[in-house]
Amino acid sequence: MLQEGSKAALELPSHCAEKSWQRHAWLYDPIIKIFFLPFGGEGRFRRALVDFAGIKEGEQVLDACCGTGTLTNLLVERVGETGAVTGIDLSNKLLEKAAKKAKRVLPLTFSQASCADMPFPDGNFNKVFVSFGLHEIAEADRQNSLQEIYRVLKANGSLFVLEYHLPRAVLTGFTVKAFHGLFEHEEAYRMLLDGTLLPELEQASFIIRRKRLIGAGMFQMLHVDKASLVEDRG
Ligand SMILES: C[S@@+](CC[C@H](N)C(=O)[O-])C[C@H]1O[C@@H](n2cnc3c(N)ncnc32)[C@H](O)[C@@H]1O
Fold first, then answer.
1. pLDDT digit string (tens) for the chain, length 234 residues
2. If we measure between CA atoms, which residue out of 98, 135, 96, 93 comes closest to residue 115?
3. Burial code of 107-146, b = ≥16 C-beta within 10 A, e = fewer?
4. Which residues contact 73 (CB under 8 A, 6 or more apart)?
5. What is the spatial distance between Cα 149 and Cα 226, in angstroms, rounded to a whole number?
6. Which residue's alpha carbon is nearest to atom 20 within ligand 1?
7. φ, ψ for residue 47 (rounded to 5)?
8. In Å, what is the CA distance from 214 to each residue of 29, 116, 118, 122, 129?
9. Nearest residue CA, atom 13 of ligand 1?
10. What is the Cα–Cα distance from 214 to 193, expressed in whole angstroms?
11. Residue 69 neighbours by CB under 8 Å, 6+ apart
12. Is the pTM of this model over 0.70?
């Protein structure tokens, strides 16, 4: 089900709006399929993230920057009938595609909203996912978005991130840099080269639990916790 957008400013960042798949939403899924072919296929990557997160039945899950909802559809299979999955994205074109792909009987909702201003109460979700989304959020909105994710997570909730990673090996490192130089915008390139992702997550009060490299070290999966500090009174 595709819900009305929230009151938040729903303008795509210019680097995002310029991408061909934003203007022609039908291109997104085929491009992603081709992109992941050298790494064993898109399904393998998406499932690796879902397995990494260990979703339990009955959980409330948010897929932030869900795009065409391919990951969102995998997540909803894991939460069962007692859980629920929500996908949000700025792009209504991509969300329309996502809603068409959704199996109707499952507890799945898509809604147009910005990560920087989410229409959810505090402590609403057990798990939040952001797959290839953080580098697309405008730098000016990224810290707000991470703080919003922190806010909507339950006290013991976790965030799972799938993002690019800069490998140390010369050949793969060069490949990732070249890809970013050609196809990604300057802010994403900066996030990758300066390695700002983990410090940005910590700045938003998250605790980094696990980092797993995949695809010859060109991608990373992160598990970060909200885990509030428990005061020990002795
Ligand atoms: C590269 S796509 C990734 C889509 C999907 N998660 C995937 O794994 O295929 C990045 C998405 O982030 C969305 N996006 C960018 N900034 C956003 C923001 N501030 N709030 C919500 N979505 C945003 C874009 O519209 C786009 O759909």
1. 677 555 456 777 777 676 766 778 889 999 999 999 999 999 999 999 999 999 999 999 999 999 999 999 999 999 998 999 999 999 999 999 999 988 767 799 999 999 999 999 999 999 999 999 999 999 999 999 999 999 999 999 999 999 999 998 999 988 888 888 888 888 888 888 888 999 999 999 999 999 999 999 999 999 999 976 666 777
2. 135
3. bbbbbbbbbbebbbeeebbbbbbbbbbbbbbbbebbebbb
4. 101, 102, 103, 108
5. 9
6. 114
7. -65, -35
8. 21, 28, 30, 32, 17
9. 65
10. 18
11. 63, 87, 95, 97, 98, 99, 101, 102, 110
12. yes
What lies within 8 Å, CB to CB, of 119 at 6+ separation is 6, 7, 8, 111, 113
Distance of alpha carbon 128 from alpha carbon 109, whole angstroms: 14
Best of 90, 97, 183 to mutate for ligand 1, by most ligand atoms within 8 A of CB? 90
> What distance in Å separates the CA atoms of residue 216 and residue 219, rounded to the nearest whole number?
8
Q: Ligand 1: list residues with CB < 6 Å.
A: 12-13, 16, 32, 65-67, 70-71, 88-91, 94, 114-116, 131-133, 136-137, 141, 145
How many Å is the Cα radius of gyration of the chain?
17
**Owner of token pair 């605790």:** 207
Tell me the HSE value of 44 on the side-chain side, using a 13 A CA sphere: 11
Domains of the chain, start order: 2-225 (3.40.50.150)
